[in-house]
Amino acid sequence: MKLLLLINPHSGLRNSKAKLIDVMDIFCAHGYNISVYVTQKKNDAYEYLMKSRTNYDLICVFGGDGTMNEVTNALMKKENKPLLGYFPSGTMNDFGSNFDLGTDFVDIAKRICEGKEYGFDVGSFNGRYFNYVAAFGAMCDVPFTTKRDAKEALGNIAYILEGIGKLAEIKKHSIRYWVNDKEYKKDILFGLVYSGNRVAGMELTSKKKSRIDNGLFNVMIVDYVPTIFDAPDIFSTLLQGNRFIHNYHTDHIVIECDKDLVWTLDGEEAKVKDKVDITIYNKALKLLA
């Protein structure tokens, strides 16, 4: 069986990949023929897989949600889609939480070798793919504007510090969107189109109510608030909901927006001019976990 270990050496906290040799030993003991590629730059995982002519049986990703996003974008364009393994070593690791993946890489390797498959949904965003979230509006540039060395040294705290520095930049955005055959117009603070139950380290819904394999997005639209002093009321009640928050469940949404509205896909920057079309592919890829 052909296995590719795809490693992002810069993701997450320092020394997060110290167990790599132990992981490789486990795979070899289970009969895997291992190839290794260490990414050299942003989007390198995507480019490497698009150029590769090898039909791997399994691709294991050592990196963060951004690296996993690159792999998904490559595999969704290929006819033969190998199984995936994921060793989350990023800062947030929201995607891995849907499969109860922690940071014990030896345990994850053993689980992969047990061979239990989980299909997961993949979102399409104007033809670009994402694993768990398309986010837009206030603070959505924090994941890709926070400096890498700060994330490696401080972890989640680096995001918090970056976000605090952007509080003065929060502004209103006017959007129009179509969901479940209805049209809406709103002035918004931010919004989320997500699968699963966790975004930016926050569990927004229970796992029983929100799954990454049910063929539906959760959509959360948060109204613009006139002063920052109203914002804590929003963030403290995301689970319960309040008058500022609008939730939907759908497999398709279209959004027209300001050209300067910031978008992020799985924590990576996404360029949008004025309109996005977001749809879901049910259980498009399979993960061993």
Could you give the topology of this structure?
Blueprint: E1 2-7, H1 20-29, E2 33-38, H2 44-51, E3 58-63, H3 65-75, E4 83-88, H4 94-97, H5 105-114, E5 117-125, E6 128-130, E7 133-137, H6 142-145, H7 148-154, H8 156-165, E8 173-179, E9 182-194, E10 198-199, E11 202-203, E12 217-223, H9 231-235, E13 245-250, E14 252-256, E15 263-265, E16 268-270, E17 275-288
Parallel strand pairs: 1-2, 1-3, 3-4
Antiparallel strand pairs: 5-6, 5-17, 7-9, 7-15, 8-9, 8-14, 9-12, 10-11, 12-13, 14-17, 15-16
Structure description:
The chain is α+β, with helices and mostly antiparallel strands and 289 residues long. The chain folds into two domains: 2-122, Probable inorganic polyphosphate/atp-NAD kinase, domain 1 (Rossmann fold); 128-282, Tumour Suppressor Smad4, CATH 2.60.200.40. The protein is 24% helix and 36% strand. The chain has helices at 20-29, 44-51, 65-75, 94-97, 105-114, 142-145, 148-154, 156-165, 231-235, and strands at 2-7, 33-38, 58-63, 83-88, 117-125, 128-130, 133-137, 173-179, 182-194, 198-199, 202-203, 217-223, 245-250, 252-256, 263-265, 268-270, 275-288. The strands form three sheets. Strands 5, 6, 7, 8, 9, 12, 13, 14, 15, 16 and 17 form an eleven-stranded antiparallel β-sheet that branches. A four-stranded parallel β-sheet has the order 2-1-3-4, with helices on both faces. Strands 10-11 form a two-stranded antiparallel sheet. Helix 7 (148-154) packs across helix 8. It is elongated and about 60 Å long.
